[in-house]
Amino acid sequence: MNANLQVSSSQYNDKGNLLLRLEEAQHRLGYLSEQTMGELAESLGISVSEVYGVATFYSFLSTRPQGKYVLRVCKGLPCCLKDSHMVISAIEAAIGIRPGDTTPDGKFSLELTNCIGACDSAPAMLVNSELHVGLTSRRISRILKTYE
C-alpha cells in the first residue's frame, strides 16, 4: 500500500468524530464560531478548512447565531411541487423575516434546506426537530403562535 494513502487508526477515529463534536459544540454554544472551529481543528490535528467544510456542508449546523426556534423548509423539487413556496411566504408574513434571517428578538430563524424527510406529507416544515406537515397559511400562523 502506498505510504501516502495510509491513515492511522487514531487519525481516522478523530476525523470520524468531527461531525459528532461539531454537533456537541453547537448544542452547547448555539452555533459554531470561528474560535470553536479553530480549537476543534487543533484538538483533532486537522485544518480549520476541513472543519469549516463539514460545518457548512450540513444544514443542521450553523456558523452564525440562530434563533431559539429554527424553522426549516425544504427547497427540494418534490416539496416545491407541493407548494413549499406558500410555506415560506406564510412564515415571512407571520414573523417578518426572509430565509437566512433571524428575528430581531432572537426567537426565530428561517432556513431553507435540501430535505427534511417529509416529501410524502408536504408542504411541511421543521421547528427545531419537530415536524409539522400538511401545512396551510392558517395552520402555519397557529403553529408559530405556539412557540411564542
Short description:
By secondary structure, the chain is of the alpha+beta class.
Topology:
Blueprint: H1 9-16, H2 18-29, H3 34-44, H4 48-57, E1 69-74, H5 77-81, H6 84-95, E2 108-113, E3 125-127, E4 130-132, H7 137-145
Parallel strand pairs: 1-2
Antiparallel strand pairs: 1-3, 3-4
Helix pairs in contact: 2-3, 3-4, 6-7
Structure description:
The protein has 2 domains: 3-57; 69-145, Glutaredoxin. Helix content is 45%, strand content 12%. It is built from 7 helices and 4 strands; from the N terminus they run H-H-H-H-E-H-H-E-E-E-H. The chain has helices at 9-16, 18-29, 34-44, 48-57, 77-81, 84-95, 137-145, and strands at residues 69-74, 108-113, 125-127, 130-132. A 4-stranded mixed beta sheet has the order 2-1-3-4, covered by helices on one side. The radius of gyration is 18 Å and the shape is elongated.
